[in-house]
Amino acid sequence: PNNWSEQLYRRYGEAFSDYVQRQVLPALRDKTDIALMKELLHRWSNHKIYVKWMDRFFTYLDRYYVKLQSVETLNNRGYSIFHQLVFEECKKDTRNALLRVINLERQGEHIDQDLVKGVIDMFIDLGLGNPNVYNTEFEEAFLPATSDYFVRQASGWLSEDSFPEYLRKAEVALHAEEQRVTNYLHRSTHPKLKHVVIQALLAQPQSQLLEKETGVVYLLDNDKREDLARMHRMFSLVDNGLNPIAQAFRQYVTDRGNKIVDERVEQAKAMASKSEALGDPSFIQTLLDLHDRFKGIVQECFSQDSLFQKSLKEAFEVFINRDIGKYSFAALMSSFCDRILKKSGERLSDDQVEVLLTKMVELFSFLSDKDLFAEIYRNQLSKRLLYETSASEDAEKSMIAKLKMKCGAQFTSKLEGMINDLSLATDLQKEFREHCDGLQEGKSSMGGIDFSATVLTTGYWPSYQVQDANLCPEMQKAIQVFHNFYNGKTQHRRLQWIHSLGQATIAAKLNNRRHDLNVNSYQAVILLLFTKNESHDLQFIQNATGLDATLTKKLLATLCISKYKVLSKTGSDAKTIEDDATFTPNDSFNCPHRKIKIPPPASEETHNKERVEEDRSIAIEAAIVRIMKMRKQLSHQQLVTEVLTQLAFFKPNPKLIKQRIEHLIEREYLERDPNQASMYRYLA
């Protein structure tokens, strides 16, 4: 009937306090450092056993009394007595002992990790499931102590070590601290400890570190890939730690590139008297190698970090768009591709070609005058296709596909159209041949000559000068037959003959030897005037062929001044053609080859700058109208900014955009806001 629970609970507490004061405290009194830790750990394990059994004896109290009175459970009561009487007494000494031992381990000495772990577990256990004791009594002292230790280390290393060596030591230290958490600290300390170490070793001394002469530039100069990778790893842990490094990297790449370009400009000046070698691939090759190397570093050492990719891009854009004298970067790049893709160019395997083209397109993507490149490339492609000097159609298609990936379908539509044209033309030639075989007269209907025509779509190909000539009857007949055939196939297309691209093979007998001369259509027309051994003067040739004087002279020069002199001319000067010169077949002509290709006069038009300018104006106007149609009204500055973001293939001068805007206002696509001159409104 008597409920003794309350007294029993009180006596339970007194028994513990009595034992602790009689046995535990005297044992700990004069001890310090390791001895203190060992004794404390020993007493704590005993205490835990004591609590465990007492708890079991008086479970009854736990079940009823504790629940009803809402007092501490027996287990917790036992722990808190130890906390108040023992821990509060010796916590300061214990904490100092722990910090000393941990610092010893940092300096490389061997310590008893189990002992440290035991003591730290006691801090955690005394929190009764809550880490506040561990946090306030241990961590709050441990983190500042760690920080002080590493700040001291850092200043020592800074004065003694090189940049890569410093980073090596910092990395080792950081790993060691992370290991320490795993070995004997509470896992919640990990992020805090890591932050403290990074601040002390990397964030605070970063600017001093990067200024060392063994810094970023030194590592890049000597291609120290491992150290570069470590630098990226370590500073990526610091907030915004990579920004200064990326800037240094960008500056370094820019300087390297500018140096190469400067050398090139100097060379060009030195060679200005002679004609510059446009076909010289070494300059572009140097830039490809440069890009290769830095791209490799970004991949290998900076693990494709977008910040560094951006720096690399910005650096290349600086020097790839510099003015380098007579030939622009666009022209040099296009010629480099031409060299790879031509039969007479470099002898490379398919794989090598593929690799070079891939790299070339990467370099091309930094170019701001992409449209100029396209124009030059298109001219060179047309020559490769029409003169059949392209080494492989697959390589051509592959390059076009790569450009398409970079710049979109609109950019390569003409190039694709050209390739497509030629395959269609081959089919057409086949049909035409079958058509001719079906004619009764057969060959005689075509003046007895073999004849085939390549039909091209005007829009895709560069513009060629058209000059009509009086063709010989055989040629006229053949052309007529083709006209009839072609008009039978389609009603709405007009054929225009470009004789400067035509080719003819003419049999000639000179010096009692047979030769087959391969010439263009104009040259053939001139040569066919000399069927017997006659001589004609310039005026006669001009009238007979119906060509103008300058072209006639150029054509005659290829026949009597160049390498193969199949005609002889009168006149004192061997290098020029006088207006009163006369020409006869050259009977002393001597050449071992039966087949001779006589090159046509050099065509002036490599690429048409005006045309590119014109296309640009149209593109800018289209962009302005598109934007204004959507926005209805914009300020001048906003409009210019938007136009610049929309134009992918070139970067126009803001002045040019302003001109185009004025032009559109004149043509009433836009109007100025009457109250605010810099505002434009769209006129529907």
UniProtKB/TrEMBL annotation:
One of its GO terms (biological process) is ubiquitin-dependent protein catabolic process. The keyword Endoplasmic reticulum does not apply. Keywords: Isopeptide bond, Ubl conjugation. GO terms for molecular function: ubiquitin protein ligase binding. It comes from the Eukaryota. The keyword Ubl conjugation applies. Residues 592-611 are annotated as: Disordered. Residues 328-560 form the Cullin family profile domain. Pfam families: Cullin, Cullin_AB, Cullin_Nedd8. Coiled coil: none annotated. GO terms for cellular component: cullin-RING ubiquitin ligase complex. Belongs to the cullin family. This is Cullin family profile domain-containing protein.
